[in-house]
Amino acid sequence: GAMLGLLGGGQLGRMFTMAAQSLGYSVTVLDPEERSPAGSIAERHLRADYLDREALNELASTCAGVTTEFENVPAEALRVLAERCIVSPAAESVAIAQDRILEKNFLAANGFGVAPYTVIQNARTSQDATNPDGALPQRQPQFFPDLFPGILKVSRFGYDGKGQVRVSNASELDSAFAGLNRESCVLEKLLPLEREVSVIVSRGFDGEVVTFPVSENQHCNGILDISIVPARVSPEIARNACDIAIRIAEKLDYRGVLCVEFFVLAEGRLLVNEIAPRPHNSGHYSINACVTSQFEQQVRILCRMPLGSTSMHGAAVMVNLLGDLWQKGEPEWEQVLRHSDVKLHLYGKRDARPGRKMGHYTVLAETTDAALRLALEIKQSLQPSHSTLETHESPRNES
Ligand code: ATP
Ligand code: MG
Ligand code: MG
């Protein structure tokens, strides 16, 4: 079969590789690391920087198409590849999605609702010879009072809530901006969220577009913790979210798999939080719960095949497994596997650092309530503090 190229070797790439292989393709991974979740299962692993000309030439000349799993791949790499082979998504879309300033400006300019925000720049870069050593944020006082309390977010390379600081007044803003030590950030109003949802949308080269069922996402310390699908919102909100996701994909002339994250406010108002130019953690449920997964969709688009059905029977809850669970060694997977409608996915990472995404499991059930109940029960049973031994032996003081 033909070869597909993949920029980035993380878990998203590993799941893409599995989907590609099950459709008969081979995969070449380009990643600077020696060992990576995708690199270790792909047919070929090119160990080089993303902008390494030789490696890019090699990819372009051996692969039918190239995609990315890494949000921060230099857009230039995609541009270079696109001169010689099929690339999904395009450099232009990735460039927007990986820069919070471009992203917010794009969304706002095209009429998609976003949280109130302003760009905070180092005065030195934003202007002006008259303020040669001004390291203070460039002030736009007319907007500021409305944005507190707010969140200051780095414009590039933030993920899992990293590079974000909550600020409640101008002086906290100044010190947070200095602390983040970036040329530019976005200050965003902190909003009262009723909940968060996301939509994975896939759009092919011929413009065919399909959304996945809306996912409801709960975060813990800025990291996705649980996704509940279908999201517990009205059909109208779900339809709106899908419409917006499709319109964003069309505005970008996007070719590939795109995730749109939303804030749900009171009265069902939807604001776009951010977009990710790739399959997304909140779409992992699709591997086990949908006819076609987000990764198979990514393969199909790259190979110019028709999109698959995203329909889903029943409900699913996905729970992330972070490195924290490995405190006392490998968790007891039997706690997951003894449930016959639960699917476990481990990413083959050796180094279980706290906060690191090591795997996930997906509970399948008829209703979200039933799936959530079992998901939380399993989550509890996996805690390092919880052991079958302790529960039986500890004295029961409470009753
Ligand atoms: P990801 O890993 O999804 O890329 P990220 O680092 O880009 O995360 P955001 O999605 O901007 O971060 O924010 C992480 C989480 O912080 C959000 O999912 C939400 O729970 C919370 N959050 C972010 N911005 C706001 C806001 N303006 N108001 C309220 N909560 C917010
Ligand atoms: Mg993000
Ligand atoms: Mg996010």
Automatic annotation (TrEMBL):
Transmembrane segments: none annotated. GO terms for molecular function: 5-(carboxyamino)imidazole ribonucleotide synthase activity; ATP binding; metal ion binding; phosphoribosylaminoimidazole carboxylase activity. Pfam families: ATP-grasp, PurK_C, RS_preATP-grasp-like. InterPro entries: ATP-grasp (IPR011761), ATP-grasp_carboxylate-amine (IPR003135), ATP_grasp_subdomain_1 (IPR013815), PreATP-grasp_dom_sf (IPR016185), PurK (IPR005875), PurK_C (IPR040686), PurT/PurK_preATP-grasp (IPR054350), Rudment_hybrid_motif (IPR011054). One of its GO terms (cellular component) is cytosol. GO terms for biological process: 'de novo' IMP biosynthetic process. Belongs to the PurK/PurT family. Homodimer. This is N5-carboxyaminoimidazole ribonucleotide synthase. It comes from Nitrosospira multiformis (strain ATCC 25196 / NCIMB 11849 / C 71).
